[in-house]
Amino acid sequence: MQLRRTALVATVATLAAALLTGVAPALADLDPVPPPSVGPPTEPECLPLGAGTTGVLLVGGQVPSGDQLSGQAGGLGAPVTGDLGRTLPDRVVFKDSRHTFSNDYAFALRQGRIYVRPAKVGVGRPGEPWRRLELPTCLDGRVQEISADHSLLIALGPGRQVYSHDMAASGDLSAERWTWRWGPYFWTGSGMRLYGDVRAWATSEFTSAERLRDSAGRTHSPIGVATVYLLRGDRRRITYLDPWLPQDESREVCGPERGTLPLTGLSGSGSTVFVVGAGGELFTRLYDFDVSGANTVFGDFTWERGLPADDPRWQLPGPTWVRQPEPPGRVTDRISIAKTGSHADQRLLTVEGRDASGRRGYWRKTLTAERWTFVRTGAPLQGRLLPTRADRRFVADDRRYVGTVGERRAVVADFNPECSPARLSVQVAPGQRLDLLLHSSDGLRQERRDRGLTDVPREYNGAVEVPWQTWRQLASQPAAVRRWVATHLDGRFTTAPLAVTSTRVRFLDQCWQLTLDGEPARPDEPALPPDAGAVVGRLTELQGDGRAPSTCLP
Known about the structure:
Blueprint: H1 7-20, H2 66-69, E1 76-79, H3 82-86, E2 99-101, E3 105-110, E4 113-120, E5 123-124, E6 131-133, E7 145-149, E8 152-156, E9 162-165, E10 200-206, E11 212-213, E12 219-220, E13 225-231, E14 238-241, H4 256-259, E15 263-269, E16 272-277, E17 282-286, E18 301-302, E19 314-315, E20 322-323, E21 330-339, E22 347-354, E23 360-366, E24 373-376, E25 385-386, E26 399-405, E27 408-415, E28 422-429, E29 432-442, E30 458-465, H5 468-472, H6 479-488, E31 493-495, E32 498-500, E33 504-507, E34 512-516, H7 532-545
Parallel strand pairs: 18-19
Antiparallel strand pairs: 1-6, 2-3, 3-4, 4-5, 4-6, 7-8, 8-9, 10-13, 11-12, 13-14, 15-16, 16-17, 17-20, 21-22, 21-25, 22-23, 23-24, 26-27, 26-34, 27-28, 28-29, 29-30, 30-31, 30-32, 32-33, 33-34
Protein name: Tachylectin
Keywords: Signal
Signal peptide: 1-28
């Protein structure tokens, strides 16, 4: 994506807004009583890792380690021999909490220590042994889980504290690169611990040297984003974390079938999420903070359709879930996805299971292929065979809001805080209803908030869409419909940023308001402290769209 601003300008803008609102962008920006998921390590010997070079804006991966300066292979310890060596695999087929791989290495976790071997897509380089990864003293022998993608390695230490290592451009694994910093601003935050109810999690990195195809088919280079996807204990929520974003549970990937499908497994790579449902359903989706349209500081987005192929703006809404074909056999809940190239379509899917003859092994195919190939191993299955018992679908987390839109009664039948679009119906005249779509994507934030909707307004980037069938036949629609569209909309897509609470939807540009089931709304609660990120995000979205600030009163 072409950036409207350099990283430096965006940095200055955000920090300036932070200072104006009294928010200090400091490493030690801790709550007086931080929630369990937020804060630095409790082990004093780990605190110096707050100075690790991973994530340092613009220069982190370029800072040479002591090993590099001395001409050594950073972080690679002695070769593994004996009984321990025999427990380490020739190749890592499935990424899980004990085995993973990056662009250049395979990793394995044994008794709190990490072992490493040069590898491509998990396959070890011939002649290269497994070696002990040299870790900071406070982590050595105390690592609980690991996950990696591209050049990012994440380890959970004591208390499930998140530690990250960027491996730098040269694949340097030096211990001094590890850091527990996580969160705003720009990966300088106070750290976090992974939630205890996580069923599966995956690290993802999508770099600016790679490419993706947006929902309109245009090709872009990513901004560069690191993401951690979490399948939560309720089997429906997919929380996602980003080292530049607040350490909270407020950002989610809407699950397949509008979040109603019970999920049993998750994997991720290169901003592509791969999940399996309780019935063996397999879905993939390209999704991260940038693809969703939330990063208005660093990127340009548009809701308009029919733009030229070379238009630099990313299409909204972003890509949706793609259901993958079912393998001609049984599958388990053990799945994995891996990068095989620099385009988002170049991904390898792997699913453990049995073939039609009952032989054990795993199914494989590329992301866009129609057919699976079975690799027979004969090894015992480690996952649960699917389908499991007949799981009922979850009820969608939808809300009904009623009010006045463009001087006419309107109903948003199914607003969902994580899943878009919702249905917006406007009674333009007696007996004449106009059915529209209301799109919403989470806005920029740099302060923590609760998940879902509360009485603190949650801002969304949004748009009202006239469905294609209605738009193409607009000339033949009743006069009341044509008049309402011409008066209140800007075309087929109308930009409509939203502020939503559990009892109210406000259209910030149009000054429209709807309330939960048409009942009086509770008063809004202010966001404390004021969110500098939301201010900057709102201003850059206005600038990008060429819109004037809203004059609506709360």
